[in-house]
Amino acid sequence: MKALVKARPEEGLWMQNVPVPEPGPNDVLIKIKKTAICGTDVHIWKWDEFSAKTVPVPMVVGHEFVGEIVDMGAAARTYRIGQRVSGEGHIVCGTCRNCRAGRGHLCRNTKGVGVNRPGAFAEYLCIPESNVVPIPEDIPDEIAAIFDPLGNAVHTALSFDLVGEDVLVTGAGPIGIMGALVAQKVGARKVVITDINPYRLDLARRMGVQHVVDVGNETLRDVMDEIGMTEGFDVGLEMSGAAPAMQQMIARMNNGGKLALLGIAPTEFPVDWNTVIFKMLQIKGIYGREMYETWYKMIALVQSGLDVSGLITHRIHIDAFEQGFAAMISGNSGKVVMDWEG
Ligand code: NAD
Ligand code: ZN
């Protein structure tokens, strides 16, 4: 089968012919319809420090997907051939304390599809049946293909009660904008998103985020005054991984504020811990999606009108994958969806 492979420990990805994976007794084989490019795939493309340390070569990459079940192992009985599915890209051990307590997202032994084991940028993907998420008929393929990052946003945004709260989202990448839209949908009072990239700021405006702030050109404090925020933010969703954004968030929180951190910083950076202490802030780190509560909530949000389709800025055929990666690397894109059919 055709697959996008990290074939050599250097920049790039290569389309190669590799064997179709064989499902084990508890696995399903999925024929891929559409995939989307994640920031992680871009790191693997560039072969930065994180990738070189984490990804064994050769590796079929990719983990944002939708497809159709075409085969399954003898013990896999929950789904049927022909069913349209996406799936959780974190494969957990099932035997550690958190797994046995039903907290799979906190597994100590998580393996990433397309990172530690063969991924979804291929004609066929093999994953455990327990990782499969069936897609309701009213949800389009391209939306199901971006459920992984939407799940990151939903997990982060729903970490704290947002009803009537003032919410700051730092970073208007696809996940930040999704997080802001979720906050608005579930009843936040004011939602403010920040970025420094004009393309991303414009995308946030077009997607209908309430208040979009270019922190390269205006101060967050001034905007808070303009929109009638006399105190600070109640909830912060850190979606940039940028040190100045995190530092600004801590400075602009109200006492007792709650922070959910998703953005991954490239290097360590200083934090004003005394402000965290005197403001009595709560901080929660977020990795992936809750299994499988986030998936249920995300599907319900989409079915009740959460529309993230405008975040898909590039729709290409997989044969044009180099264009897709170039768009992601430029920063002038939302989600890039790659079609494996036709
Ligand atoms: P992205 O890189 O597309 O978006 C990040 C945005 O932050 C960019 O638009 C960038 O311009 C902006 N930014 C940079 N400096 C800023 C500043 N000072 N203030 C405000 N914004 C600033 O990333 P994404 O795909 O939307 O993902 C969001 C973050 O979440 C990334 O850091 C990514 O690595 C991370 N991530 C974490 C998980 C997890 O499980 N924890 C999963 C997926 C992604
Ligand atoms: Zn485990």
Structure overview:
With 342 residues, this protein is α/β, with parallel strands linked by helices. It has 2 domains: 2-146 and 308-339, Medium-chain alcohol dehydrogenases, catalytic domain (Quinone Oxidoreductase, Chain A, domain 1), CATH 3.90.180; 154-285, 3-Layer(aba) Sandwich (Rossmann fold), CATH 3.40.50.720. Helices cover 29% and strands 27% of the residues. It is built from 12 helices and 18 strands. The protein has helices at 39-46, 49-54, 97-100, 141-144, 147-157, 174-185, 198-206, 220-226, 243-252, 273-278, 293-303, 321-330, and strands at 2-6, 14-17, 27-36, 59-60, 64-72, 84-87, 90-91, 111-112, 124-128, 132-134, 166-170, 190-195, 211-214, 233-238, 253-261, 282-285, 312-317, 335-339. Strands 3, 5, 6, 9, 10, 17 and 18 form a 7-stranded mixed β-sheet that branches. It is globular. The two termini are 15 Å apart. The model has no long low-confidence stretch (mean pLDDT 98). The structure holds nicotinamide-adenine-dinucleotide and zinc ion (ZN). Zinc ion binds at residues 92-93, 96, 98-99, 107-109.
List the keywords.
18 strands; Quinone Oxidoreductase, Chain A, domain 1; L-threonine 3-dehydrogenase; 342 residues; six-stranded parallel beta sheet; seven-stranded mixed beta sheet; zinc ion binding; binds nicotinamide-adenine-dinucleotide; NAD; 2 domains; binds zinc ion; single chain; Rossmann fold; alpha/beta
